[in-house]
Amino acid sequence: xxxxxxxxxxxxxxxxxxxxxxxxxxxxxxxxxxxxxxxxxxxxxxxxxxxxxxxxxxxxxxxxxxxxxxxxxxxxxxxxxxxxxxxxxxxxxxxxxxxxxxxxxxxxxxxxxxxxxxxxxxxxxxxxxxxxxxxxxxxxxxxxxxxxxxxxxxxxxxxxxxxxxxxxxxxxxxxxxxxxxxxxxxxxxxxxxxxxxxxxxxxxxxxxxxxxxxxxxxxxxxxxxxxxxxxx
Length: 232
Prior knowledge:
Structural class: alpha+beta
CATH architecture: Sandwich
Helix content: 10-25%
Number of strands: 13
């Protein structure tokens, strides 16, 4: 079975993206973060900003998708049929305890979106700090899980898992250029390893298959290297 056929799969891909490009994106993020956050207009934006997520003005910047213009072989082999990246990405700077995302499955976020949520996705988490292993990361429950019940929380998207005990916990030592790719049923949370700092900069992309894409939605097609908009 291919990794992406398991909805709970987690894969650490080493050397997935060019460190030089990620450095450029980190510099850009640091330069415009405060200015772009100040442009938030909606109540939803103000809520996500309080949780360490970028405003819409910063998220819709096309340059974040430069990482997908020259996908490496390890990335292509992992993604398989998941070649459409949803727009916009999640752009995040974790700086405070309340920025830490509780245990959840990404399918819980999709359910919150209703008809605007995808039926099946995979997530690509890309840390862009110079030494990611010294910063907050993602911790996974390696249990083979079904879709679990989510309850309201104060975190991003406002949902998390009910009290639950996992049998296996795991996190990965990442370097600049590495990424984590995982299925929508993989339970995970923000995690600060021993001797690491809470502060973290990252990009998070959701990917889906063209055959199950939504109508009237923007995507970046990895195969063509272009943004596309599906017909309503």
